[in-house]
Structures are given as C-alpha cells and as structure tokens.
Write a structure and sequence with these properties.
Strand content: under 5%
Helix content: 40-55%
Shape: globular
Radius of gyration: 21 Å
Number of helices: 15
Largest sheet: 2 strands, antiparallel
Order of helices and strands: EHEHHHHHHHHHHHHHH
Distance between the termini: 25 Å
C-alpha cells in the first residue's frame, strides 16, 4: 500500500482559489425563485431553527458574515496586517465565486448580494481598490434578468472568468509567502511528516485498510490519552478514516472539539479539512444540493484565529504564517468542478481518503476474478 503523508506543503506559494465552471459539466436546472429550494431529510439540516424542520435553502455568501476578525489584541505590525488581508481578500474571492456559481448553475440573480461585499476590511490600498473593481465588474457582468439564463451559452462565463483570475493573481502576487520567509520543500515535508511525531506511524496508517471496531476504540483512546496536541490531531484524523461511510460519523464531534480548544497545531488544517469532508458527505454530494460553506468557513475562521494569535506573538514565525495562509486560501466546496459527477467534496475524498482508490482497485480485481 502506497503511503500518503498527511497534508500537502501548505501554500509555499499562496495559490489562486480556482473555480472551474466547465460548460460541458453543466446540466439544466430550472427555478422560478431567487432562492433555490432543496428538499432534505430533517436529520441533515445543520440549523433547523434557521432553515426549518424539513427543508432549507441554498443561500448566497457575499451578503453574510464572511470576514476574518482576530480575537486578541493585535500589535501594530505590517505582517499582521497582511495576514488579515490574506484572510479577507480570499474570503471575498471565494464568496463571489460561489455566488456567481449560483447564476451559472441555477440562473439565480445574485448581483445585489455580491454588491454588499465589504471591501473596506482590506488594509492595503492597492488590493482594496482592486477588490472594489473586482466586485463592481462582476456585478456589472452578471445578468439581472433570469430570462437571460442559458446554461448552454458560455458568453457570460468568458467575461467573468478573467476577472476572477485577475483578482486571484493580484492576491497571490501581493501576499506571496516568500515575502515573509523561506520554506523549501524538504523542510516543509519534514515539518508536516507524521513520522516526525510518531515512530509507529506506518502501523497506525495501515489501520485505514485493516478496519475494525477494535481499531476504532484504540484510536479514540489515543486521541484522549495523547499528551501532545499534534499527536491528538493525528490520531483524530486516523480515527476519521475508520468506518468512513458511517452516518453521523463519530469522528465529527472529536475533530470539532479539537478545533474549538484554541490550540495551535501544524495539523490543524488537515483536521479542519477532514471535519468539513465528513460533514458535507452527510449533507449532500450533489451539485444541486445544499453545501454548508458558511458553517465550514465559520470553523475555518476559528482555526485561523488560533494560528493568528501565534503570529501575533512572533510575526517572524514562518511556519505559523504558512499554516495560516493554507487555511486562508483554501477553496470552498463548489458545485461545478473537475469531478465527473457531484460537487467537489468527491475530489476532497480522493485527496484526504486515498485508500478508497485502493478499495476500488481491489473490488475491480475481485469482480474480474469472478468473471473468469
């Protein structure tokens, strides 16, 4: 079995949030309202008080609370200002991308919602002005009349795509990691390697294939007993790989509890991504279903505040800056993506749970043997 290191090199160069709206992947979906109503089982509703008992809506993001706010006293420092700009710049980019996606996927008019973006949260004058232009340009391009929606016509997308890319490039260049320090690939691999934390990590990793209730109990026990927070995070992630298709996965509250402790870890980003995947896997895999990015980003911001406090103590801590930027720049779950079907959580599955590919190969081999 091929070994996969937990996590990837976190934003050695801060990347552009990619939103791929391939016209070949789009299917016609007709809605007569500006909110897309989605029927779901009541048990899947994250917030029944807001969304009702039996159904809830796909909602816009740009008019919501998407911004990063520290929970500590922030010293006057250029690096700390930049980190806030990274967080808010990419939050704006993600929100606009996801809301524009509602037009391309459903024909929902989102201009007024996107226009509510608060660009004044960005401190850098040049980037703030670029954000203003970005928002104005997108709202001017997107149609305001639902009768103009045609999923087979890519004219609007050809106008929107370069605007999104241009703002993403502006963010990437202005806040490139090399401005704050140097991390080479070898050092990054050593920093993230679970084997630097656990001498027996290979045997722990193998439990992803050799699954059992005994292994579940063991990993949960190790989460509770490990004295080091990095190790707690690693064991919790491995616990999530047990019984990975379970409904109401027992790892969800375990991962959530770790993120809410307010402790920094080099693996905090993988804890958040794993938690987000498990949550969304239970809600919907469909391009036309509910995606709870607001919920996931709220937890993302909590993790970022934890790391930001660490940067406030030492603005030259390149590893903390790297960890912060990884979370700040990571894309939302999107509807239209490179996956052959479903939303992008299925791509997350292949990245976070590579053992499912091994299972698929073994299943195909077994079926071939049976046919013979």
């Amino acid at each position: 079995m091929k070994k996969h290191e937990l996590g990837i090199v976190a934003a050695v160069v801060i990347g552009i949030v990619a939103l791929i709206l391939s016209k070949d992947l789009q299917t016609k979906y007709i809605t007569e309202t500006q909110q897309v109503k989605v029927e779901v089982d009541a048990k899947d509703a994250d917030d029944k008080g807001e969304y009702g008992d039996d159904e809830y809506f796909i909602r816009t993001m740009s008019d919501g609370d998407i911004y990063f706010e520290p929970d500590t006293v922030v010293p006057k420092n250029a690096v700390l200002d930049d980190m806030m700009d990274v967080a808010n710049g990419y939050a704006i980019l993600r929100a606009v991308c996801c809301d524009a996606e509602l037009w391309f996927r459903f024909g929902v008019v989102v201009n007024n919602e996107i226009a509510q973006i608060k660009t004044d949260v960005i401190k850098d004058d040049v980037v703030r002005h670029a954000a203003v232009d970005f928002v104005k340009t997108i709202t001017n391009i997107l149609p305001r009349d639902t009768t103009l929606w045609d999923p087979d016509d890519d004219t609007v997308w050809k106008k929107v795509s370069p605007v999104i890319s241009s703002f993403g490039v502006r963010l990437r260049h202005r806040y490139a990691l090399e401005r704050y320090g140097t991390i080479d690939d070898k050092k990054a691999a050593a920093y993230l390697s679970p084997r630097s934390m656990m001498s027996n990590y290979d045997s722990i990793y193998s439990l992803r294939i050799d699954q059992s209730e005994q292994n579940e109990r063991f990993l949960l026990k190790m989460v509770e007993q490990a004295s080091d927070f990095d190790k707690q995070c690693l064991y919790a992630v491995e616990y999530a790989h047990q019984n990975r298709y379970a409904v109401d996965h027992p790892a969800i509250p375990v991962l959530e509890r770790l993120m809410k402790q307010g402790k920094a870890s080099r693996y905090l980003h993988i804890v958040w991504r794993t938690w987000r995947y498990l949550c969304q896997f239970e809600v919907s895999l469909s391009r036309d279903g509910v995606i709870l990015n607001q919920k996931y980003n709220k937890m993302r911001m909590r993790c970022m505040r934890t790391i930001y406090r660490q940067i406030c103590k030492n603005p030259k801590d390149i590893w903390a800056i790297n960890d912060f930027c990884y979370l700040a720049t990571f894309n939302n779950i999107v509807r239209i993506c490179d996956s052959y079907f479903g939303n992008s959580v299925l791509l997350e599955q292949m990245d976070l749970f590579p053992e499912v590919l091994i299972e698929d190969d073994e299943t195909e081999d077994d079926e071939t043997e049976e046919d013979e």
